[in-house]
Each structure stands twice: as C-alpha cells, then as structure tokens.
Amino acid sequence: MATATITKPAAKGGSFLLETPQPEEVFTPADLTDDQKLIGQTAEEFVVKEVLPLVKELENKKPGLMPELVKKAGELGLLSAGIPEQYGGAGLDKIATTVLTEKLSIYGGFAVTHGAHAGIGTLPIVYFGNEEQKKKYLPKLATGEWIGAYCLSEPQAGSDSQNSLTRAELNAEGTHYILNGQKMWITNGGFADIYIVFAKINGEKFTAFIVERSFPGFKPGNEEHKMGIHGSSTTPIFLENCKVPKENVLHEIGRGHIVAFNILNAGRFTLGASCVGGSKNVLQNASRYAKERKAFGKQIGDFGLMKEKLAEMAIQIFGVESMVYRSAGNIESAMVAASGSGDKIQNTMKVLEEYAIESSIAKVYGSEMLDYVVDEGVQMFGGYGFHEDYPVCRAYRDSRINRIFEGTNEINRMLIIQMLMKRAMGGQLALIPAAMKLADEILAGPSFEEAPEGVLAEEARVVANAKKMFLQAAGGAVQKFRDKLAEEQELIGALSNVVMEVYAMESAMLRTQKAAAAKGEAATQTMIDAARVLIADAAERVEHEAKRAIAAVHEGDMLTTQMAVLKRFGKRAPVDTIALRRRVALAVQAQDRYPFESR
User: Fold this and answer.
1) How far is CA 518 from the centre of its chain?
2) What is the DSSP letter of 255?
3) Cα–Cα distance measured from residue 395 to residue 397, given in angstroms and rounded to the nearest whole number
4) How far apart are CA 80 and CA 70, in angstroms?
5) Fewer Cβ within 10 Å of end Cβ, the chain: N or C?
6) Predicted TM-score of the model (pTM)
7) pLDDT tens digits, residue range 496-519?
C-alpha cells in the first residue's frame, strides 16, 4: 500500500478564498513517494504497451477487446486502487489513485472505460455497500472478472438526476423490487456485469440498487454513435419488470441522492486528474511534430507563434496539475484524520462533501484546459491534425465529452457558488465576516504597502488581491439578491470563474515557492516563469469577471465607487509574458514533453 507523505492537517474545503497556507503545507507532485511514482509508471507502461497498439481495433469496437484489456489491467492491480485490501483491493491512498488515473489517461477510450468501472461503477459499493454486498461484489470488481457501470442519466433527465422516471415497486412476496425505466449514456453499458442503478421506489423515494446483467428484465441497448471516445462502450439500458433482490438496495431507501452526489464529487475530481494525463500526451506529440514538420526552410517549432502554443499548453497543464495534487493532498489528509473515529461511511461522505468545491473546480478547469490543449495540438499539426490517421485528431474528438459528463460545466459552475454560500450560511466558512472586514478596509482607503520580497512575492500580492476582488463582487451580489442569487446564473458564472482562477493561481504559486525553497531559484526557473505567466493572465481574467459581476449588481455613483475600488485591487506591474513563454517553450522542446514532471 502506498502511503502519503502528509503531516499537516487538511485545509477546509473552500478555505483557500480566505487564507493562504505556507508553501510547505501543500502537497505537490514533487512530494510523491517512490511507491506512488511506481504505480504511475506501471499504469503508463500498461497503456503504452498493451492499449495503444490496439487503438484502431478499439476505435472500431472489435467485440470483446475492451473487456479483455480491462481484465488485463485487473491482473496488474490497476482496477483495485479504491477497494480496501480485505476485499481483494490495493487500498491505495487518494494521492496514489490520482497518479494512477492521470497515467492511465493517455487514450480517452480506455480512460473513460477505466473510470466508469474502477470509479463510479465500484466506489458506490466501497462507500455505501453493506458487508455482504462488499464481500460478494468487490473481489470480482477488483480483478476485472466483473466490470462495473453507473446508471443515473435518463432520456429526459441528464444533470437533473432527481427528476428520474425509473420506478421500483416491491413485489407481493416482498422479496424483489421490480424496476421499470430507461437509462441513457451508460459507459461500459455494452459489456458490464454490475450496474449501479437509481430508481424511485413507488415513484417517490430515490434509491440506489446493485443490478446484475443476468437479472431477468435487464437489457442493454445498441451502442451509441458518438462524436468521440469511440473505444468506449456507451449504450442505453432498458429495465422491463427487472427483478432485483431487495438485499441489493444500496445504502438506504430514499437516500439515493447521497450515493449519487458523493460519487459524482469523487468522479469530478478524478476527471480533473484524467485531463492532466491526456493533455501531457498531446503536448508531447505536438512538440515532437514541431521538429519533424518543416516550412519556409525551417522546423515549425522554431517559429514564435508555435513556441507560444507549446508554452501555453504546458503552463495551463501546470495550473491544473498543481490544483489537482493540492486537492488530493487535502482529501487524503482529511481521510486519514477521519479514519480513527466514528462511522466510516459517514466519515467518507463528509470528506467527499468537504471538497466538493475543489472537485467541481478540477472538473471544469481541467476539462476546459484539455479542450484548449487538443485544439492547439490540431492547429500545430495543420491539415494532418484534421486527419484520422493522426492521434491528435482523435484526442480532439475525445476531449469534448469531458465538459458534459459528471454534471455539465454550467451545472458545476452553479454548484461551486451554491456550495460556497451554503458553507458560508452554515458557518463552516467565514466568508461573510471576511466580506465585512473587506468593506471596512475599502472605507479606510489605500494603505501604504511594503515592497514584497522572496520568490513570486509580487505574484503573492496579486493573488491576495484577486481574493479581495471575489469578496467584493460576491459580497455585493449576496447583499442585492440574497436568497434569489441562484436565479442570477450569469452572475454566478462570473463569480465561479473568479473562484477557479484564484485556486489555479494560488496552487501554481505555492507549488513553485515550495520547489524553489527545496532546490533553489536557479533550478526552478522554468517553473517560476510558468507561474508568473499563469498568474499574470489569470489576474486579467479575474478582473474582467469581477467587473462583469459588479456591473450586474451596482449602478450610478455606487458603481463608480466600486469600480474605483476594483481598479485599486487590480493594480499590478506589467509582466513580459512573451519572453517568459519563450523560455517555457524552450524547456518543453528540450525534452519534447511536459517540463515539470517529477521523475
């Protein structure tokens, strides 16, 4: 079992908006243990040697091939990360499972298949199953003898999962629930053995069930013709008087939403990690191709606009990777702290809920970063990027689904602010006192600030001011709309964008400061350059979104005053991002890969 090297207590979910940890308190990829790195290496080797050579057949849905690969992955222990050792699993910590997910994500079709099985198809039983259910199902899911799937969406209810029409009625004998309904977009639907199915008992009590493929009345439909992830199986599921033993109710009757939401939180975080792995592979391919392709008598990688693309890909990956591993460290710390006392299920649910905000950020920011990277990858390949014979074309198609599943990015943007406000109103997060304190600071006017010192000291000031911009904009929004804020979706979207940028900026900054303290500035210069670009650009976006939000809340003299305050918070020295990007591009091209990998 891989053990995380964490000693600090975990930061509370969402607390990054109010406090700044010391660099040594955050987990970064440089802190991975040898065991954790070895797990990642095993996963990467499996995909490169076993999966990639078969991509053509997988894309053409060669019957039985994907399940065969899943079973092979099971033999290497790549399916059992989240399953406790007593049920045949590896019982890996959150950080090790994050590394595993990232390294398995080179090929989208396999990454999605693996995630649907080892993540949302298995974890409901790990977290919510009773002892009999765990003993019966987990050992076979751990090896891949049985493959898992998760059935929540319906034709008329995608992200609105509680609007489910699938019904469950107890039979006259009281032995089985009879399920009727249809589920849509089920990953692994065509070949899974175990399905986590959500239905309403008597049309009212939303409940989760463990359904076996062999149960009478259960029938997968035909494969969907999708834009991307062709290697994965996606089918509808039909339940026609499907007989499910009553002992296969998962968790409690009427508490299916607890299972669904907590598993989605876990899935969203995992998706962010998966986007990191996929994007690193595209960057590597783009950098290599830029040396092979010649135009106007030189390699295209020698042109400034190509260098700029490579640099920006690496910088955006750096931001998401920094966030994902920082969150993984916090989740793991919280899991360890909670493991010593009380009910394990309750503790796990509390931890997953605690970091629901960070999980949604990983999903949204990660999927939008991957879309950027694959798009620029196609651009660098030119006409060949538009051709199916080149993997960047497939990566482009495969990427697009990530902004839709696990709750659309629009839903997740709404959730980020809703969850923040819920925590603020419940007193778990001191957002309201912080906003009031900021209002006092604004009234007091500008104060003399000493020149910052140390690595990224100026950037630290910019990040601190970005947090003030959020408090300023959010404080005004809450004051004006109060409990009607949820109806102001565009405003919530703008606030959510600020929150995500702040988390990216600060995570990159803390990781860089920690690396510089360990290795010295000279050895971490490329990372410092990347962090400076990321923070400079993100600060522009923060100011833009805060401006939009404030203009939607205030008018007249108050708007003028608020904009003057915002301008004060936005004051920062210009940064030569062109020169910094050139240096980052050179680091990418020197190795033809993502330059911040911990090896």
Assistant:
1) 28
2) -
3) 5
4) 11
5) C
6) 0.95
7) 999 999 999 999 999 999 999 999
pLDDT at residue 469, rounded to an integer: 97
CATH no. of 150-250? 2.40.110.10
pLDDT in the model for residue 2: 43
- Closest alpha carbon to 222 in 176, 269, 189: 189
Spatial contact of 132 and 247, defined as CB atoms under 8 Å apart: yes
Q: Catalytic annotation on 406?
A: yes
CATH 2.40.110.10 domain position(s) in the chain: 150-250
| pLDDT score, position 7 | 52
The angle that helices 457-481 and 525-553 make with each other, rounded to 10 degrees, is: 20
DSSP E strands in 519-577: the ranges are none
Provide CATH 1.20.140.10 ranges for the chain: 257-599
Angle CA(579)–CA(585)–CA(588) in degrees, nearest 5?
A: 155
pLDDT at 159: 61
List the alpha helices (DSSP H) in 120-203: 123-128, 131-143
- What's the CATH number of domain 257-599, 1.10.10.10, 3.30.710.10, 1.20.140.10, 3.30.450.40? 1.20.140.10
Asked if 463 contacts 506 with a C-beta cutoff of 8 angstroms, the reply is yes
Instruction: Give the chain's length.
Output: 599
What pLDDT digit, counting tens, does each position of 355-377 carry? 999 999 999 999 999 999 999 99
Host H or E run for residue 179: strand 176-187
Amino acid at 306: M
What b/e sequence results for 138-170 when a residue is b if at least 16 CB atoms lie within 10 Å of its CB, and e otherwise? Answer: bbbbbbbebbbbbbbbbeebbbebeebebbbbe
Question: Following CA atoms 25, 26, 27, 28 in sequence, which dihedral angle do they give, to the nearest 10 degrees?
Answer: -130
Mean pLDDT for the stretch of residues 159-176: 88
Type of residue numbered 260: A
Domain 15-147, CATH number (from 3.40.190.10, 1.10.540.10, 3.30.1540.20, 1.10.3470.10): 1.10.540.10
Is residue 149 within 8 A of residue 192, CB to CB? The reply is yes
CATH 1.10.540.10 range(s) for the chain read 15-147
